[in-house]
Amino acid sequence: MPVMPAKVAVLASGRGSNLAALLEAxxxxxxxxxxxxxxxxxxxxxxxxxxxxANVPTLALDPRSYPDRRAFDLDLFRRIAASxxxxxxxxxxxxxxxxEALKPWVGRIINIHPSLLPKYRxxxxxxxxxxxxxxxxxxxVHFVTAELDGGPxxxxxxxxxxxxxxxxxxxxRLLPLEHRLLPAVLNLLAAGRLQWDGAPRFDGQxxxxxxxxxxxxxxx
Length: 220
What we know:
Blueprint: E1 6-11, H1 17-27, E2 33-40, H2 46-53, E3 58-60, H3 69-82, E4 87-90, H4 99-102, E5 109-113, H5 125-131, E6 136-143, E7 153-160, H6 167-191, E8 194-196, E9 200-202, E10 205-206, E11 211-214, E12 217-219
Helix pairs in contact: 1-6
Active site: 113 (proton donor)
GO biological process, one term: 'de novo' IMP biosynthetic process
Site (Raises pKa of active site His): 149
């Protein structure tokens, strides 16, 4: 019997450049998944327009219409579950998720974060790397837990910080690596090579250190 492609939902709050990278990888035949939902906390998010153009169902929920964060998150995850998604990808979703709402999804939800975690959790990562005088910067994809940007790191992409970098230039130089990193990790999940049994496993072995993005993809 043919293997059904993994069903994936994506959450994004902004223009959706990482979502665009996922959709493009899928269109090129490099990412054997089915996108079943793109959701956002902002009705005007560019990510929703990208999804509509790709004929992917969309969902926009306004957090202000809920009594508290937990109520919003519980409804959001209920709707994601109803989409039939096997995996959930946070691609620039700028909200802290309630731990109780998140609990059933632990091990099935990943996030891309613009730093070499565990460095610089939270916001303004490029600025913080520059202010610290770091020699390198990068992006991480990690399993999501209730701890902010604190779940086990799956893979990272690194680049050297250059003398002419400011916050904006560093962010722009990092984006192409993010756009390769996230589809590569999702591909491993869809293929069953990356799994979760309370901790990440890669090709059946515990993933003790993050995979690295090289010229030919992800390598141990």
